[in-house]
Design a protein that fits this description.
Blueprint lengths: L1 E6 L2 E7 L5 H11 L17 H4 L10 E4 L2 E5 L4 E3 L12 E8 L2 E7 L9 E5 L1 H5 L7 H13 L1
Antiparallel strand pairs: 1-2, 1-3, 3-4, 4-5, 6-7, 7-8
Length: 151
């Protein structure tokens, strides 16, 4: 089976695994895309895009590992199948958008805002982030754009 790892919206690694336990595969894909004893992107057994050959960050919270068309989000402890996000009640969820630069945003989604380590986050353009959620985020984008202009 082919396993891919995305940092934000970009695939940074692809690898082949023999069929097996999904949890073991997720953990191994995570381990292989983290620089522990050496830079992970120098591993000859991983298919890495040319732009990552000179350097690429390690896999972290909010990144996505895809196995057989199922996406799993890296969490602070373990992984969560991505389609479970659509089941979260909108009334109980906090959406936070932060602007870093021209068309460079971060979205943090959580059910427990008092815990800064909870939830998931994604970074990208407005279009990329909006495509990740079922909620219209345009009011949040308008607010952070306005605040950034006032600074």
């Amino acid at each position: 089976m082919i396993v891919s790892v995305k940092h934000g919206m970009e695939v940074v690694a692809k690898m082949k695994f023999v069929s097996g336990d999904i949890d073991l595969i997720l953990n191994e894909a995570y381990r292989l895309t983290n620089s522990i004893d050496a830079a992970w992107y120098t591993n000859e057994n991983i298919d890495i895009p040319d732009k990552c050959r000179a350097g690429c960050r390690s896999t972290t919270i909010g990144d996505i590992i895809t196995i057989d068309d199922k996406e799993y989000i890296v969490e602070s402890m373990g992984f969560k199948e991505r389609n479970t996000l659509a089941k979260i009640s909108i009334e109980k969820v906090l959406y936070v958008v932060e602007k870093y630069g021209e068309n460079d945003y971060s979205l943090w989604v959580t059910e427990t805002p008092e815990d800064i380590n909870s939830g998931i986050s994604v970074r990208g353009t407005k279009k990329e982030i909006q495509s990740e959620v079922l909620v219209d985020l345009s009011p949040l984008f308008m607010q952070v754009d306005k605040e950034k202009m006032e600074l």
